[in-house]
Amino acid sequence: MDKPAIEFVEELYSKEEIEKMVTQFQEKGYVILPDVFKRETVDPFVKQLEEIMIFDGLKNTIPHNSPHYIHCAYTPRARQVLPYTLSHLNSKPYPCLNTTIIIIQKDGDTSYIPEWHKDHSPEGMPGKEYYYPSTVFLAFYFEDMTDEHGPTLTIPGTHRDLSIYPVDKNSYADVAVIPDNDDKKLPVEAIHCRKQDAVLLDQRIWHRGTARKAPGTRYIFVYGAYPIAHFYGTVTHMPESQLHAWIHAKNMKDRVFFGGYFAPPDREALKAMEKELDELEKAGGPVREFLRAAY
Ligand SMILES: [Fe+2]
């Protein structure tokens, strides 16, 4: 399989640029991160996606073991900004991926156009005080988005403001109106990023998809990340008794409590891991060994 053709801009943002972007993210609920990719390398990447695209029985996607599936999550500039959107701590948390969503819609396919919604209900914010989101979406659109391309629409500020609804609650009509003032449309903003940009979205914002009118296929990659505090500074293996508790967990709460976001590896995953370790070793390693927990 070909190496992903898309290339990153390695030069990091300045402190001032980050501050500006984080301020916009907190005020509006989304921000465009400019020039995270080298523009001329985006089209060749999209061409590769076309070649490896599969239909999994439900939707078009790409194989989850393809490097193309994860490649954009390495983007240095996006990774640089992410921790600042997740916590005010001086000792910034490590962002950790918890989900990947690949949206591929071929010509004219409008089967997945989400209506106005919030991915998360706001996490306790009755006043004006800012609460950091528990997860953030990092999204890539891989083309210059115009209204013709079916951009994501947002209502800026609604990640903090619970009084605004984009639908008329009596009729559920899909119009953005201010409650008690049906004449005045809410300020809806389309996210017009360029192919070399990334987007950070606070999932508490009202947002929706729109139908694409331009010819061609829509590719959107979304990576969800949440913060992990790292006061203890190291990544370790878990004690075996915890491993036991994780594997034998009888309910979701225990599974998450003992193991975190992902399920324990099953045989298929173990085989894949073994293969990866073998390849790493064959290539001369080093096969990285993390500490056992301090038990
Ligand atoms: Fe959504």
Let me know the average pLDDT.
Answer: 88
CATH superfamily of the largest domain: q2cbj1_9rhob like domain
How much of the sequence is in beta strands? Answer: 15-25%
Largest sheet properties: 5 strands, antiparallel
Contiguous uncertain segments of 5+ residues: none
The spatial strand order of the largest sheet comes to: 1-10-5-12-4
Helix content: 10-25%
Instruction: Tell me the CATH architecture of the largest domain.
Output: Sandwich
**Overall CATH class of the largest domain:** Mainly Beta
Q: How large is the radius of gyration?
A: 21 Å
> Shape from CA axes?
globular
The distinct bound ligands, ions and cofactors come out as: fe (ii) ion
Number of strands: 14
What name does the CATH topology of the largest domain carry? Jelly Rolls
- The total of helices stands at 7
The helix/strand order is: HEHEEHHEEEEEEEEEEHHHE
Provide a short characterization of the protein structure.
The chain is of the alpha+beta class and 295 residues long. The chain has 2 domains: 15-232, Jelly Rolls (Sandwich); 234-295, no CATH class. It has 7 helices and 14 strands.
Describe this protein's structure:
The protein has 295 residues and is an alpha+beta fold. It has helices at 15-28, 42-52, 67-70, 76-86, 240-247, 252-259, 267-282; strands at 30-33, 54-55, 60-61, 94-105, 136-140, 153-154, 177-178, 181-185, 189-190, 198-202, 207-208, 218-228, 236-237, 291-292. The protein has 2 domains: 15-232, Sandwich (Jelly Rolls), CATH 2.60.120; 234-295, no CATH class. It is 24% helix and 20% strand. A 5-stranded antiparallel sheet has the order 1-10-5-12-4. Strands 9-6-11 form a 3-stranded antiparallel sheet, with no helix packed on it. A two-stranded antiparallel ribbon has the order 2-3. A hairpin with a 2-residue loop joins strand 7 and strand 8 (181-185). It starts with 14 loop residues before the first helix and ends with a strand. The model has no long low-confidence stretch (mean pLDDT 88). The structure holds fe (ii) ion. Fe (ii) ion is lined by residues 114, 117, 119, 207.
